[in-house]
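User: Can you predict the 3D structure for this chain?
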Amino acid sequence: SSNYATQIARREALSRWLIKITDRDISKKLAAVSQVYDYLTKIFLYMNGRRIADAVKLAQNHNDFRLSLLLSQVEGNVLVRKLLTKQLDNWRQNGAYEFIKPNRIALYALLAGMLVYEDVNCCESLSWKQVLSLQLWYLCNPNASVQEAVKEYDESFQGTGPHGKYARPPYPLYMEDLDPTEKEEIDIMFDTCYHILKLYCDRSYRFDLLLMPETYSTAHLDYRLSWLLHLSLSSIGYTIPVDLASTLHMNFASQLESLNLWHWAIFVLLHHDDEEWRIKQVKDVILRNISLEVNEDAIVKEKFLTEQLLIPEKWIFQAKAVKANNLGLKAEEAWNLLKAEFWSESHSIVIKYLASDAVINEDYDYLMKYLSELSIPERSNTILDWSNGGQVYLDYINMCQILQEVLSREISAYDLEKFTPEVVSLCQRLSSIPTYTLKDRLSIAEMAKKTATILQSISILQASRTNNNNLLTTLASSIKNLPMPYDYAVSENRFVAHSFLEKITTED
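Assistant: Here is the predicted structure, written as structure tokens:
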């Protein structure tokens, strides 16, 4: 009982859809039919739209009372169909058939549950949806299932039934005027709605036929409906093949990307079930479209990705880093790598391309922007050669800043003594900084010279406050370890020699 009720409910749902989808075409034809001289054609059109009451009323208005009585019983007892079939056969046998108008024969054939009788074809010039309507309401039994009606329609356009081919194939709306004999291969281009009906009748029906753009649009690269239909079918339990699902996602995303709607393309790709595939494709789209320019459009799109689609922000910075690398923008590459949490890679770029210029130009604030972020213990602990790279530059900058504070006021010998080991340590580590170009060597030489100068300043300040004999020895040893060119080394060693000579003279 439940299955039967469901079957009838589905039949009625299909009927309502057919009435709605064919109403416009039928109304247009009704308006073109002469009210006085061709009322039978108009009655047939009413029947095609299941407007039985209108058909009965029109027959009565033209005093065709027998026809009106028959029309009122069209969806009733099967016995009526048998009697009408017998009546048609009698007319044919006694010769009266030749004197009856074809449109009246078509009506009687329709009421008898036949869409083809002798040379009269009720489905001539009708769309496939109108043909299916007639088969569902008048050819099949009143309690027949949707599957039976679809089977009847398949036979009508494939020619596998007793009457051969008498209906148009289920071409898409944009191909309804096509002559079926023009192209044999066009047979596969069937309407999306037809494919959905076939899928309902057979769950193993081919999804690749259903989800092609050719089934609904002349734009064969327009995957909007295909993608949405795929999501709808998946949500009600249909299993779409993985390859087909991937193709639909990729094609629709590419369509959006070509329209500069790449952020919506990511929205589409995020619906794919495979996490690994999804991540790769999303990153690729971001990489192709992300902009290094800071403008309103870029900000809005990035905000949409991170706040609405919940895309990890580091994916965006990673893509920006790659783009900056391609454009040779090393500063932006290093900063975006840092924001993408690629600490080692960012550190490498800073040391190799940025640090030397910053030191030579004494633009320490610029360099500190990177080093202060990288120096956080949780980050610096993961950076390869941090102690021989970024840490050395960081200590050097801190030393320069502290020296400015020291020289600006009087401080105790204790404070100077406390600061001395840090400077000595820096002297020992400057030579460990990797060099790639002559500019790198120049920057290290400048750092070494300034470190030596700072060490000399500390020595002079301490000499005025203490009588430490080891001070000159420490100074000489530290300067010896500094990676300075010959002319710089000669100048610094001259200062050490002069200090030793002065010390000896003072002791004598």
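Residues 2-32 form the longest helix (31 residues). The radius of gyration is 44 Å.
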